[in-house]
Q: What sequence folds into this?
């Protein structure tokens, strides 16, 4: 962890940001797991019409969630790299 | 509660949970935007930190798209649940009976006897129901039977429904009659005579998504009738003939009413005959080719009434046809039908033996020259 005086970004701010991103990812994973269980339990006994549309929409949610999770991971990596660059100056 | 009704509830519950999830994701999106405030800008801002902000923006847009998609799915599931509820309501016009026993798809009730089944297959909700109410003893007169079936397509904006609510028919007769058979099963003549009156009444009610149908029919015949039917034949050839002679009075009528969104259409037909009629029909079935012919002759006084009334938003019309006949009337007709499969089978059967003999002859000739 860099010393407070060695970077323009304060360590406490950086830690808070990383903590916030990690918390958002964890919450996203939690919601995603809950929704997937919900949808999967109903897909097997789907009683309405247009089952293909329901399954396609569910799969689309999986895809979008994966994109957001990966982007957030990228944010965390880039942020850590930015901190390292600041330290290297 | 049937399993189908349960499924509707499950869909509604899922839609609610998805709506909550959409709100939760919206909150996460706002939290993500606020988290960028936690990063104090560098002086000067570094390129690496600019990448962080860009990627965080991209994650925020993805989160917003996720919110919209979850919201869309919630709405879609709501629509499906609503469509199923609407389908149930439409099909519920048949009436549901309380059940003492149940299984996932079928309810059975007692003591009067009823059965209901509902199922969903290939985009269409189907229901079949039969109820029997009233005493079962033959000596009791109060008895009613109702059968119904219908289906509803669960489209979003349209529903095709066609429900037969009631279809009953009853025949009563009074008089004396006798029936006799002469001959065997392969060749026989059935003779029946009846003197008295026969009455038939029937009614049907149907409900569709575009119109309601009501129909009633009645026929009364009083007098003397004699019928004779003869049949003789085997597998390849069958010959049959039937004849009926009637003298007396006959009156029959039918009324149909269609009530739709565009108006009302009513039709009424009635036929009456005072006198007599003789009808004969003959049928020959030879190697899958069936030929039937009929001839009829009637005499006496006849009357005919046909009325067609139509009341709509665009047009109101009334058509009336009245006819009367006195004297003699004749009718003739011939009908020929061919069944290729039966013809092929019949011909193969009939000539099978000959073909076998020819094949044996060829074999013998081959033996001579080998």
A:
């Amino acid at each position: 962890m860099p010393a407070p005086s060695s970077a323009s970004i304060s360590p406490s701010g950086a830690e808070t940001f990383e903590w916030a991103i990690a918390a958002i990812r964890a919450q996203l994973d939690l919601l995603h797991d809950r929704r997937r269980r919900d949808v999967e339990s109903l897909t097997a006994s789907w009683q309405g019409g247009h089952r293909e549309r329901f399954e396609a929409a569910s799969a689309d949610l999986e895809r979008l969630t994966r994109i957001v999770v990966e982007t957030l991971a990228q944010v965390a990596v880039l942020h850590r790299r930015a901190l390292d660059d600041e330290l290297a100056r | 509660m049937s399993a189908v009704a349960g499924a509707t509830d499950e869909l509604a519950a899922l839609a609610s949970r998805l709506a909550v999830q959409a709100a939760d994701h919206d909150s996460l999106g706002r939290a993500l935007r606020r988290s960028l405030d936690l990063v104090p800008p560098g002086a000067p801002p570094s390129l690496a930190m600019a990448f962080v902000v860009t990627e965080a923006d991209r994650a925020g847009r993805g989160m917003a798209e996720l919110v919209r998609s979850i919201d869309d799915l919630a709405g879609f599931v709501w629509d499906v649940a609503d469509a199923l509820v609407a389908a149930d309501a439409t099909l519920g016009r048949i009436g549901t009976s309380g059940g003492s026993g149940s299984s996932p798809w079928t309810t059975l009730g007692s003591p009067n006897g009823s059965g209901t089944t509902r199922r969903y297959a290939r985009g269409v909700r189907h229901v079949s129901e039969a109820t029997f109410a009233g005493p079962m003893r033959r000596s009791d007169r109060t008895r009613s039977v109702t059968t119904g079936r219908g289906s509803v397509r669960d489209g979003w904006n349209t529903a095709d429904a066609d429900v037969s609510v009631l279809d009953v028919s009853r025949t009563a007769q009074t008089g004396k009659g006798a029936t006799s058979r002469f001959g065997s099963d392969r060749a026989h003549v059935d003779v029946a005579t009846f003197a008295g009156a026969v009455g038939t009444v029937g009614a049907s009610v149907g409900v569709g998504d575009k119109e309601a149908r009501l129909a009633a029919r009645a026929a009364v015949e009083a007098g003397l009738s004699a019928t004779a039917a003869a049949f003789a034949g085997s597998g390849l050839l069958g010959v049959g003939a039937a004849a009926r002679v009637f003298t007396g009075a006959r009156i029959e009528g039918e009324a149909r009413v269609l009530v739709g969104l565009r108006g009302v259409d009513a039709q009424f037909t009635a036929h009456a005959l005072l006198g007599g009629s003789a009808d004969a029909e003959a049928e020959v079935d030879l190697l899958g080719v069936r030929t039937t012919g009929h001839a009829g002759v009637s005499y006496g006084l006849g009357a005919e009434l046909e009325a067609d009334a139509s009341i709509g938003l665009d047009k109101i019309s009334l058509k009336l046809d009245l006819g009367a006949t006195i004297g003699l009337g004749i009718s003739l007709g011939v009908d020929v039908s061919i069944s290729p499969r039966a013809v092929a089978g019949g011909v193969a059967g009939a000539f099978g033996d000959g073909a076998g003999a020819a094949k044996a002859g060829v074999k013998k000739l081959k033996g001579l020259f080998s």
User: Anything to note?
Assistant: Helices of chain B lie at 3-35, 47-91, 340-369.
